[in-house]
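Colleagues,

For the teaching module next term, I've prepared a clean inverse folding example: a structure given as tokens, and then the sequence designed for it. I'd like students to try predicting residues themselves before seeing the answer, so please don't circulate the second half yet.
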């Protein structure tokens, strides 16, 4: 069966502290997404200084940012599946993508290369 595969970067804002109800989302819930299409610049489409905010403070109290790569697969029949590859910090403090998405598809090398290049450029800024 024919299929199309699309990728996009996402920065999730995740509620990490239990705050009064007036602040909204329960702990562990994603409260915002900021998607960037590789065709529109991918990681370079995020504002300068974004790298420093990953896993760090956010404009909303009790919220932490998480960078990830999203993989969407759509068949000719219209069936769709979505997989996520969350970045983690390495010993040097840089972000790394895993070898595979959460459902087992391989993370393409070009996105690992893009992430490494983006971090180098962010370090210069």
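(Answer key — instructors only)
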């Amino acid at each position: 069966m024919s299929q199309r595969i699309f990728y996009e970067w996402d920065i999730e804002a995740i509620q990490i502290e239990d705050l009064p109800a007036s602040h909204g989302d329960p702990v562990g819930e994603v409260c915002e997404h900021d998607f960037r299409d590789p065709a529109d610049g991918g990681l370079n489409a995020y504002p300068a200084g974004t790298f420093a905010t990953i896993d760090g403070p956010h404009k909303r109290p009790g919220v932490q940012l998480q960078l990830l790569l999203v993989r969407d697969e759509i068949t000719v029949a219209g069936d769709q599946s979505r997989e996520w590859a969350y970045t983690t910090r390495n010993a040097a403090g840089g972000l790394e993508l895993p070898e595979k998405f959460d459902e087992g598809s391989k993370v393409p090398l070009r996105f690992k290369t893009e992430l490494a290049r983006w971090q180098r450029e962010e370090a210069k800024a």
